[in-house]
Each structure stands twice: as structure tokens, then as C-alpha cells.
Backbone:
């Protein structure tokens, strides 16, 4: 029970602190008095007795300190004392405190901001029930999903989702806007374990018969944004692609679906696909890749890896779909495919795949910035320790133990770190919005929610503590270690050798680390420049792309073709338009059709079948409109219609693949479609156009004339109809005119999205731009801190040696020599830092290799540039105090003695 | 902590035992304990305040001794320490352990080849 007694004693001592203290005082006084009396009785003189008794007892304060230290409560007590003392002493030097806290705030703030992003994108689980039980299931076809639902031995529940499609939604009469809609199976919400905030969510009964469940669940954010949190939202009818849909519920706040980085506004049952999504009805097609299956597995089911049972089901389903005439390529692919389960608790994310590496890289960079900041503060503390030498010596002389002194100095660092941490969190919070905007292609929509949670707070606490130890330990240890006698006697000594060596080392390290960051920034700036220089194969300037969805307004087949013809004619006549065409996939959308059944007649298939090719459907004058020069042959025109021979244009890569050096113009391609075979004549060879961005590898691609599509594939429905408009002047001014024109043709038509060429190009560079922007920011911060460190240290030396410099000048030293002697110190540090930084930068930059474009991670020019910038700025930072040294007035300097 | 070199030359923990023993004879204030120890040890142990007070604090904290304010023979107030029951038991235990150890150590130091 001893511990209990100690606990009670300690707690009561904390409360009776004053009395305990008094009692100790009294007891010691009594001791001293008795001691004096004994000595008097032994015959000592009064004065001697007092002096002897005092000296026998030693320092009263130290004695009390040691006695107090016995109880644990005294530890708490003295920590609080230290904290108060630290705050007092920091307040006494506001300049130092401000600089140190701001430096720390920048470091901690940047680190926290990047970490919060990293957490949201990479680490966080979906906001659903027991996310660890969720798995992502391969084999994404609708019939496969239905078959898999029967495997109840594996899945407690299984759902499918289409991801997000922008659809035309009309809330009130006349007000329509493209809205992100996700089509999900009836089991979606139950699988994820998500309840509604208002109304109800879908059940399996909401997703049975195609077209018979016109209901929707809206997201909490959408409810807020578009319905002003109306309580009467249930039962409201909205029109999605013209189809009336009733809202039956609101999803809980914070629920964004399964896709990190995408936030649907509305969820609609999958069975409604054919009625709300224009274009092909994918539910009835064997198309793959549009459906994501998510399952909640039974306990004990392996969370990842191949599932032979599901693979078997998958093959059966595919065999049923195609029946006896399964195409060879499907047979081959199906035989090879295996169905796997992957852990799905963190959801699906393109964002994750896209940003994982850049974010890890940036995290590394920002930690470097933090290290540089720490080095700066350590140097400030070292300088401060020198100016506080006397205070520390006095306290040591008064009997403070060195351990206690160290603890006190560390407490000061901790208080400083806490201050910096708090400011840093505020900074991170402010910077978060800007960061999110950097990673989202479309500035108006922020794709992920970054929230402050326990993990983030722990991170901030740990990082603040780590920095405090990092920058505080060495100065504290040095102060406490210093020999009392030498420093009391020689207290005018300038700093002392070890401190100077340590400070120099810290400055050299700062320069080296800054060089690493500068190198990174340089590499990414050049990557951006290189990507900007890439020939995309078309001319994005003065090009407008309008995504019109005629299917949404009910246009099908011949009517859709007639509409396109009318719109092409009307747009052509708009003043300022120099040329117009259309295409299914447009430019830089990253989407395409694909086939591996198009080849020259007589081409022999390899073991993998015919080469895979991509294709698009394009209108007359397509290539001249997008500004893609033809290598040979002619552009499509109105001539390529239903009555004329089937034409096809192929790109250079396809020509190389199939015809090597022979001239392909006039050659014939055959295409197996719908059980038959079509023959097309090559009329043009086009440049390779980059379809998803400057990093695109060249791929074989062919183009079919829009007006011949009914002959080539009679059931083909375009996924979208994009009008491409080349303008004579500023395309932005034409945008509203064209919108107006489209809805004047038919008020039910709407433009789902409108983009101008350069904007499309810039969207493909989001990731690189984010990394480059942040690395440049970090690089500037790092160099700034390093220069501040250099400046501070040299300025400090100058101040310490003012009188020495004054004497030298009085004795006839040239000012130029004084300048050089001071500057030389800086030059040595910068040279040392650069020399240490070069190998560091070369090895660190390897990490970024996969993100770079058009240059190597060890690019010599960039390294030279970074070293040059670092040296120049460093020299400038060293020059300012050096010049001050050279201007020292010997009279003033000596009088100051 | 150069202040208590004498005490640290005592075997670790022995000071506590000696204080307990002193108080087992009669209740005593801080200065008296120091004087008594010096007397009994014939000046071998000089206990200064720097080691005495932390030791008293620790013993009191552990409930082995109890302090109360009384008036001294010189009509002054002083804090007198008394042995508690656990303190008495502890002293008994420690004395026994000490005897066993010292006997053993003496035996080792006195050992000659003939006895083996």
C-alpha cells in the first residue's frame, strides 16, 4: 500500500504546498539555530558560530530543492515552475521568440498541411461501417455482378457502382446544370452500412426492373447547396436527362461514396441506366470497366488474393452472354482472367494512384524544410545561450543541479515548439484550401474533405515534440556542460570553440539541405517546361470544345444525326467561327474506344491476336479544325456519307504498325463487327495526337467518319457528341453565344461541359504543377531560412568581435581586408554546404525520377543552377553583416568597451 | 553534488537504517539525529543537512517515521521524528539483513587457505 500512501501524500502536498514549504523553512531554521547554539555552548564566538553553522549547512535553496525533489508531486510542481520561467524568459526577448516561433510555424505548418493531404488521400478509411470488412471485387460486368450476389458464402453483401457521370439535372423549371450522378445497385447503402440522414436509402427492391424505379438519394452537401437544407425535400421531383426522378432521402453528412476524390451529388438505382444516361445502355452490353463492385466479406474470408470460386462463376457468366459464337479475343481474355479480392476499406481512388508518389515526395521535401527550420532555431538558441551565459552561471553557482538546468532549457524549447506548433496548425488550416485547389483540376470543385482528426493532432504533437528535442537538446546540453570556473572568470570570451564549431556545422547542413530542395524545384520546373513543349499533335489555341448530350434530350438514330448536321451548319455561320467539326471523344479527354479486330486484309494475327487499336468517330474537316496536320491523304468531308465507299483515317503509329514503310493510302482495312465484316479504305494518315496528355505514349488509332457510322456499325450510339470549334479570335467570348445557339435549337439540349483548348492542356498537368509549385515554395522557404541562418551567425560574430575589429582598423587594417576576413567565413560555410549538398541532392532526386519528364534526375545543368542560386543568395546574406564589419568606426567600437 | 560526499561514502541505503536506529532509541529532531549519529560512530560519520533532510523526507513519505512539532529542552519549537510500526519492522528486517551480510563479508575478508 506504500504507493497509495505516496499518492495521497503527494496529492495533499500539492494542495498544501504553501504549508509544506513553510514547515520545511521552519524546520531548517530550527536546525540552524540549534546548530548555532551548540557551537556557542562549545565556546565559539557568536560571529564564528553563525558562520560555521551556515557553511556546514551549505546553500539553503539547494538543500530545499533536494528535499523537495523527494516527492513525485515536486516533479509536477517544478515542471510547472519551469514552464512559467520559460514563458517569462521568452517574453523578455520578443525578437528571438518571434523569429523562432514564426520559423517553426512555417516548418510545422507546411508539414502538417502536406500530411493532412497525405492522410486524406492515402491513409483514411471510408466513412462507413467497419471499413476493414470491405473488398473491391474484380470482374466488372453487370451480369457478373448479378451472378456474384449469389455467393453468399463469401459476401455478406455485395454492391456495384458506376462511378460518377455528369448528367443534366433540372431542379426547377428551366434551371439546369451538369450534376455528378452515381448509379448504384440497390444493395449499395446496405453493403457500405450507411443510413440516411433524412428519408430512406435504396433497398434491393429499388433496383429490380429496368426503368421502373425513378428515385434518387441526394448527398448532404447537395441538399445544402441546392435545396437550402429544406426539410420538404422528400418527394421533390427533379429531372435527370429529362426523366422525372423523385428524391427519397438524404445521405449522412461526410458520406461521399466509395470513390476518394469524387463527390457525387445524387445516387440513382442502376436499373435506371438506360433512362437517365445517354448513350449505350451498358447494363445490356458485355462492356467492362465501367462498374466497380464492392463487397462486405464474411469473417474468415481471405481479404485479398484470387478467388477460384468467383473466377469459375465469371467464366460461366461470360460463356452464357456470348453463347456459341464467342469471339476469339473474348475467349482468350476470359480464360486468362482471375477474379481477385482487394482490401477496400479505403475505397477506390484515381486520386490515390495519381498523387501517392507526389505526396510522398512532398512529405520528404517538407521534412527537409522542417529540419532546416530546426537547425536555424538551434543556432538561435546557441547564440542566446552565450548571451545568457552569466545568468546560467549564476544559477549553477547558486546550487542548481545541471540536470535541472538542462530540464529547464529543454522546457523552454518545448514551450517554443508548442507556440510554433499552434501557429503552424493555424497556418496549415489556412493553406489547406489552397493546397486542395492545387490538386483539383477543376478549381470550382474540391474533391476531398480534409478534416482535423485525432491522427492529425497526434501528428502535430509528435512533430512539435520532435522538433523541440531536435533543436533544443544540443544547446541545452552545451550550456549545462560548460565549466563554471572558466566561464565565470573568462566570461568575455567570444562564444567558445565548441559552440562555434556546432553553429558552423548547423549552417553548413542548412545550405546542403536547401540545395537538395532547390535541385528538386529545378527538376520539376524543367519538367513542366518540357511537358509544355511537347507537341500534342493538334493546336489547342483558339479551340473550343462543347460536350452536347443529344441523347439526354431524346435524340436517337437518324434524328441525332440530323441534329448534328443542323448544329454543324449553324455553328459554322456564327461570326468569329472559322471551322467546326465533331467527335465522340474529343481531344485530351483521355477517353477512347478500343478494338483488336481492325487490321489490313490478310494480316496474320500473333499469339495475342491482332494488335490493339484505339478509335474515334469524327465529323467532316475534323483534322483541319483541331489543327492536326495530315501526313498524307485528305481530310474527311461531307462526301464521306452513307452512299460513298467506307473511309478510315489512321495515325502514323498505326501506319507504322501495319504497313511499315509502304504507303497506306488507298489500302484496305477489315473490321469484324456484329458477326459480319466491313471493309474500309484508308484515305488519310494523320499525326499522332496525344489523347490524355503530353506524357502519352504513341498508340495506333483510327478515325471513322461520323456520317458513315450507320453503315459501319448500325447500332452504334455515341457516348457523347463533342463539337470542336476553331475560332478566329478569343474563344472565351464565343462561349456564351454557342451555348445560346444550342438551346435555341432545342431548349431541351444542354451543354454538359465547355472547355477551351489551353485549359484542357493545363488540366493534364495538375499533378506536375502541384509538385512544382510546392517544391518551389519549399525551396524558397529553405533558402530563405538558410540565408537567415548564415546572416545571423555572421552578424553575431561581427557583434562579438566589434572591439577587435575596431582595434585592427585603428592599427591600420584596410577595410577591404576586414570585409574579406568576415566574408571568408561565409564563403567557407557555403562552399562546405554546397559540397555536402551535391551528393545528397543527386541521391535524393532519384526518388523523383518517375515523375520527371524529358530530363534525368541527376541532370547536371539543374544541379549547377541550384548550386549557383544557393551560393549567390548565401553570399548576399553573408555580405550584409560583413560590410557592416568593414564600416566599424574604431572610436565608437573602443568607446563601447 | 559535492555537498554530501561523506554520506555517499556510506553504503547506499545505510543512512536510512542508521536514522531508523537512532529514532528507535528515542524521538529526535533533525539536528539531534545528526549529532547522535556522530556521537555513536565516534565521529566517523558526519551527516550534513544536505543528506539528512532528503533522507528524512523520504522516510516520512514512505510512512516509516512520523514528524510532529514539539518544544525542545531549550524552549524552542522543533520537528521531532518518531518511528512508526512499519518503520520498526523495516529496521528489524534491515538489521537482520545487515548482520547476515557483514558476517559473510567479514568471513570472506578473514579467509585464509587453511579454512577451505
Residues:
Amino acid at each position: 500500500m506504500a504507493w497509495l500512501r505516496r499518492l495521497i501524500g503527494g496529492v495533499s502536498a500539492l494542495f498544501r504546498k504553501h504549508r509544506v514549504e513553510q514547515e520545511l523553512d521552519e524546520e531548517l531554521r530550527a536546525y540552524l539555530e540549534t546548530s548555532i547554539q551548540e557551537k556557542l555552548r562549545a565556546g565559539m564566538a557568536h560571529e564564528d558560530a553563525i558562520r560555521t553553522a551556515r557553511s556546514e549547512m551549505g546553500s539553503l535553496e539547494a538543500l530545499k530543492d533536494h528535499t523537495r525533489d523527494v516527492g513525485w508531486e515536486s516533479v509536477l510542481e517544478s515542471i510547472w515552475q519551469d514552464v512559467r520561467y520559460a514563458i517569462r524568459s521568452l517574453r523578455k526577448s520578443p525578437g528571438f521568440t518571434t523569429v523562432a516561433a514564426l520559423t517553426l510555424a512555417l516548418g510545422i505548418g507546411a508539414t502538417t498541411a502536406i500530411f493532412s493531404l497525405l492522410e486524406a488521400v492515402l491513409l483514411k478509411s471510408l466513412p462507413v461501417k467497419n471499413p476493414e470488412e470491405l473488398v473491391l471485387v474484380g470482374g466488372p460486368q453487370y451480369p457478373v455482378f448479378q451472378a456474384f450476389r449469389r455467393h453468399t458464402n463469401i459476401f455478406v453483401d455485395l454492391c456495384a457502382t458506376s462511378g460518377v457521370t455528369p448528367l443534366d439535372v433540372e431542379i426547377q423549371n428551366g434551371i439546369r446544370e451538369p450534376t455528378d450522378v452515381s448509379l448504384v445497385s440497390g444493395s449499395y447503402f446496405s453493403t457500405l452500412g450507411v443510413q440516411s440522414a433524412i428519408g430512406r436509402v435504396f433497398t434491393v427492391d429499388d433496383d429490380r426492373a429496368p426503368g421502373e424505379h425513378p428515385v434518387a438519394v441526394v448527398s448532404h452537401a447537395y441538399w445544402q447547396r441546392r435545396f437550402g437544407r429544406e426539410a420538404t425535400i422528400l418527394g421533390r421531383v427533379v429531372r435527370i436527362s429529362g426523366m422525372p426522378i423523385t428524391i427519397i432521402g438524404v445521405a449522412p453528412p461526410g458520406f461521399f461514396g466509395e470513390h476518394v476524390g469524387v463527390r457525387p451529388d445524387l445516387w440513382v438505382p442502376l436499373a435506371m441506366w438506360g433512362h437517365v444516361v445517354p448513350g449505350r445502355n451498358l447494363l445490356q452490353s458485355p462492356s467492362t470497366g465501367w462498374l466497380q463492385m464492392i463487397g462486405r466479406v464474411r469473417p474468415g474470408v481471405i481479404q485479398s488474393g484470387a478467388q477460384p470460386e468467383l473466377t469459375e462463376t465469371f467464366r460461366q457468366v461470360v460463356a452464357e452472354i456470348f453463347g456459341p459464337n464467342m469471339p476469339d479475343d473474348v475467349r482468350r481474355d476470359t480464360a486468362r482472367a482471375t477474379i481477385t479480392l482487394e482490401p477496400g476499406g479505403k475505397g477506390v481512388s484515381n486520386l490515390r494512384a495519381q498523387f501517392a508518389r507526389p505526396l510522398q515526395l512532398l512529405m520528404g521535401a517538407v521534412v527537409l524544410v522542417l529540419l532546416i527550420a530546426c537547425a536555424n532555431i538551434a543556432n538561435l538558441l546557441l547564440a542566446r545561450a552565450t548571451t545568457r551565459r552569466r545568468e546560467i552561471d549564476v544559477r549553477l553557482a547558486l546550487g542548481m543541479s545541471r540536470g535541472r538546468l538542462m530540464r529547464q532549457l529543454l522546457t523552454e524549447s518545448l514551450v517554443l515548439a508548442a507556440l510554433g506548433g499552434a501557429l503552424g496548425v493555424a497556418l496549415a488550416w489556412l493553406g489547406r484550401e489552397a493546397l486542395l485547389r492545387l490538386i483539383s483540376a477543376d478549381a470550382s470543385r474540391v474533391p476531398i474533405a480534409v478534416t482535423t482528426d485525432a491522427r492529425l493532432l497526434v501528428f502535430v504533437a509528435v512533430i512539435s515534440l520532435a522538433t523541440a528535442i531536435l533543436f533544443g537538446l544540443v544547446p541545452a546540453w552545451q550550456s549545462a556542460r560548460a565549466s563554471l570556473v572558466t566561464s565565470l572568470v573568462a566570461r568575455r570570451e567570444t562564444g567558445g570553440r565548441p559552440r562555434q564549431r556546432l553553429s558552423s556545422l548547423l549552417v553548413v547542413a542548412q545550405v546542403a539541405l536547401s540545395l537538395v530542395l532547390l535541385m528538386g524545384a529545378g527538376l520539376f520546373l524543367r519538367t513542366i517546361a518540357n511537358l509544355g513543349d511537347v507537341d500534342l499533335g493538334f493546336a489547342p489555341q483558339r479551340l473550343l470544345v462543347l460536350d452536347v448530350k443529344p441523347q439526354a434530350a431524346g435524340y436517337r438514330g437518324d434524328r441525332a444525326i440530323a441534329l448534328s448536321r443542323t448544329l454543324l451548319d449553324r455553328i459554322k455561320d456564327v461570326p468569329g467561327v472559322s471551322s467546326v467539326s465533331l467527335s465522340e471523344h474529343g481531344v485530351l479527354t483521355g477517353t477512347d474506344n478500343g478494338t483488336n479486330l481492325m487490321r489490313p486484309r490478310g494480316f496474320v494475327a500473333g499469339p495475342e491476336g491482332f494488335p490493339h487499336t484505339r478509335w474515334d468517330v469524327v465529323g467532316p474537316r475534323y483534322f483541319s479544325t483541331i489543327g492536326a496536320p495530315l501526313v498524307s491523304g485528305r481530310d474527311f468531308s461531307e462526301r464521306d456519307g452513307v452512299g460513298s465507299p467506307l473511309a478510315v483515317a489512321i495515325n502514323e503509329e498505326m501506319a507504322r504498325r501495319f504497313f511499315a514503310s509502304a504507303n497506306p493510302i488507298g489500302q484496305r482495312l477489315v473490321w469484324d463487327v456484329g458477326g459480319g465484316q466491313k471493309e474500309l479504305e484508308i484515305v488519310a494518315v494523320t499525326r499522332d495526337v496525344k489523347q490524355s496528355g503530353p506524357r502519352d505514349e504513341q498508340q495506333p488509332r483510327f478515325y471513322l467518319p461520323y456520317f458513315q457510322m450507320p453503315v459501319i456499325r448500325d447500332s452504334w450510339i455515341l457516348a457523347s457528341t463533342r463539337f470542336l470549334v476553331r475560332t478566329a479570335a478569343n474563344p472565351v467570348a464565343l462561349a456564351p453565344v454557342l451555348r445560346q445557339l444550342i438551346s435555341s435549337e432545342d431548349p431541351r439540349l444542354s451543354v454538359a461541359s465547355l472547355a477551351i483548348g489551353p485549359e484542357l492542356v493545363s488540366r493534364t498537368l495538375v499533378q506536375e504543377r502541384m509538385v512544382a509549385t510546392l517544391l518551389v515554395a519549399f525551396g524558397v522557404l529553405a533558402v530563405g531560412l538558410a540565408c537567415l541562418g548564415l546572416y545571423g551567425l555572421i552578424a553575431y560574430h561581427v557583434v562579438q568581435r566589434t572591439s577587435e575589429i575596431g582595434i585592427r582598423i585603428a592599427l591600420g587594417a584596410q577595410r577591404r581586408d576586414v570585409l574579406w576576413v568576415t566574408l571568408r567565413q561565409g564563403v567557407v560555410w557555403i562552399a562546405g554546404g554546397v559540397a555536402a549538398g551535391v551528393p545528397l541532392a543527386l541521391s535524393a532526386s532519384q526518388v523523383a525520377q518517375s515523375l520527371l519528364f524529358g530530363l534525368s534526375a541527376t541532370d547536371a545543368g539543374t544541379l549547377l543552377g541550384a548550386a549557383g542560386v544557393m551560393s549567390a543568395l548565401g553570399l548576399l546574406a553573408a555580405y550584409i553583416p560583413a560590410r557592416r564589419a568593414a564600416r566599424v568606426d574604431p572610436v565608437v567600437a573602443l568607446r563601447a568597451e | 553534488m559535492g555537498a554530501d560526499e561523506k554520506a555517499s561514502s556510506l553504503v547506499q541505503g545505510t543512512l536510512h537504517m542508521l536514522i531508523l536506529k537512532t529514532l528507535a532509541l528515542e524521538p529526535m529532531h533533525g539536528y539531534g539525529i545528526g549529532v547522535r549519529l556522530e556521537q555513536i560512530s565516534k565521529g566517523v560519520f558526519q551527516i550534513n543537512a544536505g543528506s539528512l533532510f532528503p533522507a528524512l523526507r523520504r522516510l516520512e513519505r514512505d510512512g516509516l517515521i512520523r514528524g510532529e512539532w514539539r518544544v525542545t529542552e531549550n524552549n524552542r519549537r522543533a520537528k521531532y521524528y518518531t518511528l512508526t510500526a512499519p518503520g520498526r519492522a523495516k529496521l528489524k528486517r534491515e538489521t537482520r539483513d545487515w548482520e547476515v551480510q557483514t558476517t559473510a563479508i567479514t568471513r570472506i575478508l578473514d579467509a585464509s587457505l587453511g579454512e577451505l
About this structure: The two ends of chain B are 44 Å apart (CA to CA). Chain B has one domain: 2-115. The first strand of chain B starts at residue 28 and ends at 29.
